[in-house]
Amino acid sequence: MKPLLKMLVPLFVLALVGTASAADDSWQKIKSSGELRIGLDDDFPPMAFRKADGKLYGFDIDFAEAVGKKLGLKITWVPTAWKGVIPSLYANKFDCIWNGMTITKEREEKVNFSKPYMMDGQVAAVVMSNTSIKTPADLGGKVVGIQQGSTAMKAIEALPNKPGQLKQYETNPKAMLDMESGRLDCVVLDNLVARDIISKKPGVYKILPQFITKAPFGVAFRKADNSLRNKIQETIDELVASGEAAKISRKWFAEDLTNPANW
């Protein structure tokens, strides 16, 4: 019996390895179909949004399309309610989620993320003429505005020096206008939202260096789809190395936000 068991054990191990490999044919299926279906919230500028013509625009749209082009894949966008985006992924309504999705410990328990392809987070914005506030550490005692119900409150709590007064606004643009009028020293808000507002009024506002809190963005895949995740990651890395990712980033943000050296 023992010699027989010695012969069977290696065969059993090989069978398990073969089964595991065969189980993860996620990339091969996508390659064979020639299509990558991506779930997204199509009202999240500047990452993904629609213009009057009904077409999708945004950084994530351009970046994913560049990955698809390099892999010879057609990208099919599947608009989805964000609240149910992960269940929809596991219901096979699409193959991945690519839409400024923040990598969190809670989400990592449910999905397989790519490496961060962009760093988002809360930042401090001031008017261009402000020279007294150079970093978020200078906000102590200042009058600071935030959007009601936003994650900016957590950023305020993370500040080493607390503001002297905190004003809450219905929207970030309203807070920025109040700052422009001199009623605020600073506005704390999401980095990408800040950049979108600034792009529409160049020369009026500026973002202070350093994130107050960070929120890395990643592409989310089903836990079992390692080969698909790895192939997409490999292609993202190639686009970063070639400078194509930087080109797309500069189109939307006027600088390269895909380079980890800038985070």
From TrEMBL:
Which InterPro entries does the protein's record reference?
A: Iontro_rcpt_C, SBP_3_CS, Solute-binding_3/MltF_N
| PROSITE patterns documented for this protein | SBP_BACTERIAL_3
Give the residue range of the signal peptide.
1-22
Arranged from A to Z, the UniProt key words for this protein are: Signal
Q: Gene3D superfamilies from the xrefs?
A: Periplasmic binding protein-like II
The domain of life is Bacteria
GO MF: ligand-gated monoatomic ion channel activity
Cellular compartments annotated: Cell envelope
Q: Which GO terms describe its cellular component?
A: cell envelope; membrane
Task: Provide the Solute-binding protein family 3/N-terminal domain boundaries.
Answer: 35-256
- CDD domains on file: PBP2_AatB_like (cd00996)
Which SMART domains does the entry mention? PBPb (SM00062), PBPe (SM00079)
> In this protein, which residues make up the domain named Ionotropic glutamate receptor C-terminal?
35-255
Q: Which family does it belong to?
A: Belongs to the bacterial solute-binding protein 3 family.
Q: What is this protein called?
A: Amino acid ABC transporter substrate-binding protein
Species the sequence originates in: Desulfoplanes formicivorans
